[in-house]
Specification:
The chain has helices at 76-88, 137-145, 152-164; strands at residues 3-10, 15-21, 26-32, 36-41, 48-55, 60-64, 67-69, 90-91, 94-101, 112-118, 121-122, 130-135. The chain is of the alpha+beta class. It has 2 domains: 1-32, no CATH class; 34-164, Nucleoside Triphosphate Pyrophosphohydrolase (Alpha-Beta Complex). The strands form 4 sheets. The chain has a 4-stranded mixed β-sheet. A 3-stranded antiparallel β-sheet has the order 1-2-3, with no helix packed on it. The protein is elongated.
Length: 168
């Protein structure tokens, strides 16, 4: 199948590519974005750490797990450690990789690498504009059920965490 890829827009966060399938005379647009790491921080008291931050795309605040793009020449684990510290001020020496996932497979091939950070401890302050919330698992599950926590990569990571710990 002959495919012609043409970048129609690019900045430091993403690229929009026009894919033209010549035999089918079909045009399709995709977003190329970096892979990312998503982290489920768990305290020694089995509380989860979530963040509340303003998202310009929503014009509203969002409850999320810490996450972010993997920088060039960075591994998913290094990215996870950096994002955890930047977004929450928490640190852990106990990261467990739970696999990977994809969002919007109809528009991007980007991977989200899923980590649990165990026995997190507060070592600094989070980035400006981010509120850090300690929450018991049951309360987080209720937030998911009531559609107050709707970050799908976070929900997928929590599901993998529950499966991995034989809780479902």
């Amino acid at each position: 199948m002959d495919i012609i890829n043409k970048t129609v827009y690019k900045n430091k966060w993403f690229e929009i590519v026009n894919k033209k399938y010549t035999k089918e005379n079909k045009t399709y647009y995709i977003f190329n974005i970096p892979d990312s790491s998503v982290i489920l921080p768990v305290t020694k008291n089995n509380e989860f750490i979530i963040v509340k931050q303003f998202r310009e795309s929503l014009d509203d605040f969002s409850l999320e797990l810490p996450a972010g793009f993997i920088d060039e020449n960075e591994t998913p684990l290094i990215s996870a450690k950096r994002e955890l510290l930047e977004e929450t001020g928490y640190h852990s020496n106990e990261f467990e990789y739970l696999g990977k996932g994809r969002l919007m497979m109809n528009r991007t091939k980007s991977l989200q690498h899923l980590f649990v950070a165990k026995n997190v401890i507060k070592t600094s302050n989070p980035a400006n504009g981010i509120d850090v919330i300690k929450i018991p698992p049951k309360k987080l599950y209720n937030l998911i059920s009531s559609d107050d926590f709707i970050q799908l990569s976070g929900c997928g990571l929590i599901l993998k965490y529950l499966i991995n710990n034989n809780q479902i």
